[in-house]
Here is the input.
Amino acid sequence: MEIEQKMMPSELKGIIGIPLTPFNSANEFEPGPLREQVDFFVRRKAADLLAYPMHVSEALEMSDAERKRALETVIDHNNGRLPVIAHVSSPGTDNAVGFARHARDAGADAMVCTIPYNWGPTPAGIKAHYEKLLNAVDLPLFMYNPAASYYGSPAQISPQLVFELASQYEHLVGIKEASWNTEYFAEVVRRTSMLPRKFAVFAGIEHLVQTMSMGGVGSFSVLNLLFPDLVRNVYELCARGAFVEAMPLQHQVSALLITIKKYKMHAAVKALLEMQGMPIGLPRQPNLPLGPNEGEALVATLKEIGVWPMQPWG
Here is the structure.
């Protein structure tokens, strides 16, 4: 299949910003603060690409219509300033194809898709899932390898399958590797390095020293809405190969990730954004906002890490 790629290989590196989805007091999608986040990523040079709506964006808590409208909001307001990767994952392959077709028609530059949720598909099922998506939609695709236990199943995308599909489909351009398994990450990098073209292996979260020292090209980022300078500094040092110099900053990033993962990530990030003067509403149920004691404990930990007080947002 001949594909006209919107994203050149040289662009497939860096920090991928993830906007969070704002909801108003009536629990309705609120587009204004979503547009402000896009502007923030561009103005602060906090992101090299955008990905939306990811799980931390509460994609699974949104209706299909909301999810599509929110993606359109990001693409339209971004207006080509940064490449936009549309998250199209769904429990059913046909549903993922539907989201992918919508993303293509809405003007997304690429798509990212994980294995189907819940079912724990077999290796053959995972292969069929990606083949159907690659054959159905002519957008550059990032696979998305989750943690082994993330969906209640040990199912993962094998490094061999990544290599086989990338050898067959030119528009399979990279992977979000979120298993946090060092051996797996290294093996995906090793195998895809044998391709006659670039293949981008992104960390699923900001473990940049660990992954870029093995050949990773950057990461999806939850923290760069809150600490854009910290995340950017770690990335730039790693991109120069200054891993020893980057390590103290990576320690701060890693401590922050452990801290916000103690809560639901989007609940913690939304709470911290509000503390910075950028309220974007509450998380949707079943996830709950931080309680007063949790908010105080979160601030206390940020003080220990050395990142409090935070800069005003904007």
Remarks:
- Strands lie at 14-17, 49-52, 84-87, 110-114, 141-145, 172-177, 200-203, 218-221.
- Residues 1-5 have pLDDT under 50 and may be disordered.
- The chain has one domain: 12-243.
